[in-house]
Automatic annotation (TrEMBL), chain A:
Record key words, sorted: ATP-binding, Nucleotide-binding, Transport
Organism: Arachidicoccus rhizosphaerae
UniProt xrefs under PROSITE patterns: ABC_TRANSPORTER_1 (PS00211), ABC_TRANSPORTER_2 (PS50893)
Protein name, UniProt field: Putative ABC transport system ATP-binding protein
Domain ABC transporter span(s) in chain numbering: 6-245
CDD domains on file: ABC_MJ0796_LolCDE_FtsE (cd03255)
One CC-aspect GO term: membrane protein complex
Molecular function in Gene Ontology: ATP binding; ATP hydrolysis activity; transmembrane transporter activity
Family: Belongs to the ABC transporter superfamily. Macrolide exporter (TC 3.A.1.122) family.
Pfam families assigned: ABC_tran
Automatic annotation (TrEMBL), chain B:
Molecular functions per Gene Ontology: transmembrane transporter activity
Source domain of life: Bacteria
Descriptive protein name: Putative ABC transport system permease protein
GO cellular component: plasma membrane
Alphabetically ordered keywords of this record: Cell membrane, Membrane, Transmembrane, Transmembrane helix
Stated family: Belongs to the ABC-4 integral membrane protein family.
Subcellular location: Cell membrane
Domain MacB-like periplasmic core: 22-246
Residue ranges annotated for the ABC3 transporter permease C-terminal domain, each copy included: 287-400
InterPro entries reported in the protein's UniProt record: ABC3_permease_C, MacB_PCD, Macrolide_Exporter_MacB
Statement: the UniProt record of this protein carries the keyword Repeat: no
Membrane topology: Multi-pass membrane protein
Length: 250, 407
């Protein structure tokens, strides 16, 4: 049996809002094995964002346990959580969140700056390797505004990979991209998954979920459905099926 | 995270907005440059006052006869005669902190040269007098031991006396003048010194051997009007004064109960008054400059606050990928310190340059002290930490979730 990357048991998260208590997550339990490609879906208000914040160790649950890579991270303080984020999680955001006026290479290097064990030479070497993995090693010195949206997201993915995390956590990572580029990003994600990376992809788009091996549906703070996807769609094939790119000039 | 990494990150962050970093520095640059230039001007004027004072003889010590109790009646100093050549010789022999001593006997009277005459004073002195009063000879020679021994009728003239007794273009050296009824041969001319700090014309003077003045003019061969002494340095003035006092007390056979029958004065008091005035000037100029440095610091705080707000999303991202609150705090703090230290460096350069230009163009005396450079540099560092801390803390306390969603 594959190694268990994360295990959530009876997770609850509530917020006090103007005297009322809002239960964003009510008793959620699931676990994810190494090498899985999981999408977490749900409409707005389903607790998806709260789930993402907790999975990303940005927030602590009100009750319940969250084991990440064998470590109980539910009760860590701010600084300990920061260390977990640095070493175990690779974030990919909807709006890329690259540092402006900073080269692709430096953007990718950034997480390693916060890792004491990595020296300058190793930092650069690992960043180059991560950029090679997303096939952007030819654009290391480009600034974000010199890259297309898809390329920027690939830099962001390289940045998520560089710390060699146990899990890549993507938040609507294709939300700002057109269909073709979204599929390109999903193809890259599938490639990374085939190489053994565990990916958790939070999205509200069903056709993105079709590329994953498992979908967890959230609704009103609870798991509504947790389905294995028997027929994983290939993003590369989907790309080929798309009508040819519009040929009219700008 | 290693401090070196933080410094690298801070430098990279500053490089992303060079113009803003420079504009932020500008306040510090101007502040530091102003502090250094102002302190240089203040110190320079202080030093120039000091040197003009020592031109007057700042290590000069004057000994006057002093009033003494006489049957309960206090007598005026000038009416009392207590100083003699014995005192001069005793001081010359025993005092270690002096490098010149001269008795002074003086008289007022009319100096005459042919049809010209001029009311002036004649000072009977020894050769050391020129050194003590910082006079120098423009022409001719000083009188000698032999002149003193023989009460030779020779004299040195100040410029004012020359101007009033001789027609322009006439060389007075070798000529004869009369003071009262006594003829004197002019053997030297003093370089003009101008007015003293009290408005006295220091060039309205005739110098002659004290024996000559005693024997030929005052007809009083025992007592002296004053004794002038020069201490080996300005700093030694006080210890020289103590030496002289104890020598004179022993010489005058004064018991412990008796007051001094003489009065020893140094120029130190005058100097301290005048340098206090110019110190005040320095303090004034420096505090004005200090205020501009303070405003520069507020400028840093302002920009750092704006920068924290503007970079909220960046802070959120850094936190998401593993930066701790302290890392963020240090990054912003180091940015502020780099701004202020760099600004300080440029400011020191600019301050030195402007001090140099002030001397070159305005001919103002300036004196650059290492202390002023060190102080303003230190203040810069403190400014950076002080004004950078609050914005940095604000950044460090951000909630990563909110910061990431900040638009």
């Amino acid at each position: 049996m594959a190694q268990e990357i994360l295990n959530i048991q009876h997770l609850k998260r509530s917020f006090a809002m103007g005297g009322e208590t809002v239960h964003a997550l009510k008793d959620v339990s699931f676990s994810i094995q190494a090498g899985e490609f999981v999408t977490i879906m749900g409409s707005s208000g389903s607790g998806k964002t709260t789930m993402l914040n907790i999975l990303g160790c940005l927030d602590n649950p009100t009750s319940g346990t969250y084991m990440l890579d064998g470590q109980d991270v539910g009760k860590l303080d701010r600084n300990q959580l920061a260390r977990v984020r640095n070493s175990k999680i690779g974030f990919v955001f909807q709006s890329y969140n690259l540092l402006a006026r900073t080269t692709a290479l430096e953007n990718v290097e950034l997480p390693l700056f916060y890792n004491k064990k990595v020296n300058a030479a190793e930092r650069k070497q690992r960043a180059i390797k991560a950029l090679q993995a997303v096939k952007l090693d030819g654009r290391m010195d480009h600034l974000p505004n010199q890259l297309s949206g898809g390329q920027q997201q690939r830099v962001a993915i390289a940045r998520a990979l560089v710390g060699e995390p146990v899990m890549i956590l993507a938040d609507e990572a294709t939300g700002n991209l057109d269909t073709r580029t979204s599929y390109e990003i999903m193809a890259l994600m599938q490639d990374l998954n085939k190489e053994g990376k565990t990916i958790v992809f939070v999205t509200h788009e069903p056709d993105i979920a079709a590329f994953s091996s498992r979908t967890i549906m959230l609704r009103d703070g609870s798991v509504q459905k947790d389905l294995k996807n028997e027929k994983v769609r290939s993003a590369r094939q989907a790309l080929e099926e798309l009508p040819p790119a519009d040929s009219y000039s700008i | 995270m290693a401090i070196l990494n933080l410094i690298k990150l801070a430098i990279k962050a500053l490089q992303r907005n060079k113009l803003r970093a420079f504009l932020t520095m500008l306040g510090i640059i101007i502040g530091v440059a102003a502090v250094i230039a102002m302190m240089a001007i203040g110190q320079g004027s202080k030093e120039s006052i000091r040197s003009s004072l020592s031109g007057m003889g700042s290590n000069m010590i004057t000994i006057f006869p002093q009033s003494n109790l006489e049957g309960g009646v206090r007598m005026g100093g000038s009416s009392f005669q207590s100083l003699t050549m014995k005192d001069v010789n005793a001081i010359k022999k025993q005092a270690t902190k002096i490098d010149g001593i001269s008795p002074v006997v003086n008289a007022s009277g009319q100096a005459v040269n042919g049809g010209q005459n001029w009311p002036t004073s004649i000072y009977g002195v020894s050769q050391d007098y020129l050194h003590i009063r910082q006079f120098s000879l423009k022409d001719g020679v000083n009188f000698t031991d032999k002149d003193i021994l023989t009460s030779a009728k020779v004299c040195l003239l100040g410029q004012t006396v020359i101007d009033n007794l001789f027609a322009p273009g006439v060389d007075p050296v070798g000529k004869y003048i009369r003071f009262g009824k006594t003829p004197f041969q002019v053997i030297g001319i003093l370089n003009p010194k101008g007015q003293s700090n009290f408005g006295q014309d220091q060039d309205d003077i005739i110098l002659a051997p004290y024996t000559t003045v005693q024997n030929r003019i005052t007809a009083s061969t025992v007592y002296l009007n004053q004794i002038y002494v020069s201490a080996i340095s300005e700093a030694a003035s006080d210890s020289a004064t103590n030496e002289i006092t104890s020598i004179l007390r022993a010489n005058h056979h004064l018991t412990d109960q008796q007051e001094d029958d003489f009065n020893v004065r140094t120029q130190a008091e005058l100097i301290s008054t005048i340098s206090a005035t110019s110190s005040m000037l320095t303090v004034l100029l420096t505090s004005i400059a200090g205020i501009s440095l303070f405003i520069g610091g507020i400028g840093i705080m302002n920009i750092m606050y704006v920068s924290v707000t503007e970079r909220t999303k960046e802070i959120g991202l850094r936190m998401a990928i593993g930066a701790r609150g302290s890392d963020i705090l240090m990054q912003f703090l180091i940015e502020a310190i780099i701004i202020s230290i760099t600004g300080g460096l440029i400011g020191v350069g600019l301050g030195l340059l402007s001090s140099f230009l002030i001397t070159k163009l305005a001919h103002w005396p300036v004196l650059i002290s290492e202390t002023s450079i060190m102080i303003s540099f230190l203040v810069c560092g403190i400014t950076g930490v002080f004004f950078g801390y609050y914005p940095a803390q604000k950044a460090a306390r951000l909630d990563p979730i909110e910061a990431l969603r900040y638009e």
